[in-house]
Amino acid sequence: MPNWQKWTVATLLLFLVACTAFVAGFGIGRYVSPAYRPIAGVTPEELKNEFGLFWDAWNIVEREFYRESPLDHHEMTYGAIRGMVESLGDAHTMFLTPSQRVMFGQDLEGEFGGIGVTIRMNEQGQLMAVKTLPGTPAERAGIKPGDLILAVDGKPIQGLDTAQAISMIRGPTGTVVRLVIKRGTEEPFDIVLTRAVVSLPTLESRMLEDGIAYLALSEFNAKAGAGVRSALKDLLAQKPRGLILDLRGNPGGYLHIAEEVASEFFGDGLILFERSPDGAETRHSVRPGGRATEIPLAVLVDGGSASASEIVAGAIQDRSRGVLIGERTFGKGSVQITEQLKDGAGLQITIRRWYTPAGHQIDGKGLTPDVEVPLTEQDLQAARDPQLAAAVAHLLGQESP
Fold first, then answer.
1. How far is CA 380 from CA 175, 307, 376, 385, 386, in A?
2. For residues 17 and 39, is the Cβ–Cβ distance under 8 A?
3. Ordered structural domains, the chain, with CATH
4. Could you give the 3-state DSSP secondary structure of residue 107?
5. Residue 121 and residue 286: Cα distance in Å, rounded?
6. What CA–CA distance (Å, rounded) separates 351 from 335?
């Protein structure tokens, strides 16, 4: 390998070791990396020894590996970066290829290339379709609520988390994705779909029977704060008896949007606090001007409710502002930043952990609902929603059905 190429790769890897990065739900924010800076606590000699080991391995591969075509040094570099990041043992610190980094950014802006199906993991760790969005490839292909997605492009889904599964299904518009679907007791079958631009409906709002207002938020993206404020204005003008905030399947998003949304339900006080590795704490308090600070409130959550969703739900639960109904949440209680690399790839890096107002750590634990109500595959197939029914019953002061 020519010296110039070797030092190009070395410079990239040195830069990666020095990176600190981006504030995230399952992805929050995109920022450009600062210039390289010295690595605290690492001497040049120690660094030289570590990279000497790396180059020993690289040179052995160059010299000994049997191949019938030239080695792809760019992919080898990506593999080295992935290995470095995976060695940290943090599921939320990850390497993103240029296309993945763009996809994450599009998602947070509310538009992306995909098939138009909302999903969740069931208790068996299987990816389950919850609903399809109107006019999308998933709806046209006949995917139904309760369908299990067993594999994507020949790769099994079992054992992956929701974010990993979503990244496999999404991709550039116009490209093809093949899903293996299991429906009820039928034999698994293939569905081939062409990805299209999917405009994610950030929220849904309406009045239910018995004077209950309903507001569902699908993601804390750039559109969510203004959308929630507008929806609450319209709903509250109808003098509802109570409000249901549906955060089921909401994977998170921007931290500052979570603060905006949470502030709509409190007059003042703490929403969350963050803790850095050195023990320093940053407190995030309610912003004034909330519209729904007094109305009786129920929040729907499930295993797909993560990060920013857990920030809002955790504050509401800790401060007894409302009742949580549904299933245990995902358990994403860390803060990420993202660094863009020179070729457009990126690193998502955990930099802090956040805690609820009462000091509960969410990461790896999640939130336990005040009223636990499961939602089964049979419920989805029969178009039943016992969790929503339980929320309505609670707000009406009745026993859950």
1. 29, 25, 7, 7, 10
2. yes
3. 3-96 (no CATH), 111-199 (2.30.42.10), 203-336+349-395 (3.90.226.10)
4. helix
5. 32
6. 6
Tell me which H or E stretch contains 197: strand 196-199
Do residues 100 and 337 lie in contact, with contact meaning Cβ atoms separated by under 8 Å?
Answer: no
Distances (CA, A) of 170 to 33, 166, 202, 203, 294: 26, 6, 18, 21, 40
**Contact yes or no for 183/149 (Cβ under 8 A):** no
Predicted pLDDT at 151: 94
- Give pairs for 183-186: CB < 8 Å, separation 24+: 183/144, 183/146, 183/147, 183/148, 184/146, 184/381
386 membership: H or E segment, kind and range = helix 386-395
Q: Which residues are catalytic?
A: 307, 318, 332
Give the CA angle between residues 147, 375, 369 to the nearest 5°: 140
- C-alpha 320/C-alpha 250 separation (Å) is 22
Q: Which positions of the chain have pLDDT values less than 50?
A: 1-37, 399-401
pLDDT at 300: 98
Alpha-carbon distance of 108 to 255, in angstroms, equals: 12
Q: Which helix (H) or strand (E) holds 216?
A: strand 212-217
CA distance 375 to 372: 10
The alpha carbon torsion through 355, 213, 221, 331 (nearest 10 deg) reads: 30
Query: What is the DSSP code string of 278-313?
Result: TS-EEEEEPPS--S-SSS-EEEEE-TT--THHHHHH
Supply the pLDDT for residue 338.
84
Tokens standing for 305?
């409710």
The pLDDT score that the predictor gives to residue 41 is: 65
pLDDT of residue 152: 94
The answer to whether the CB of 291 falls within 8 A of the CB of 264 is yes
Task: Tell how strand 148-152 and strand 346-355 pair up.
Answer: unpaired
Identify whether the C-beta of residue 215 lies closer than 8 Å to the C-beta of residue 205: yes
Q: To 10 degrees, what angle do helices 255-263 and 308-318 make?
A: 30
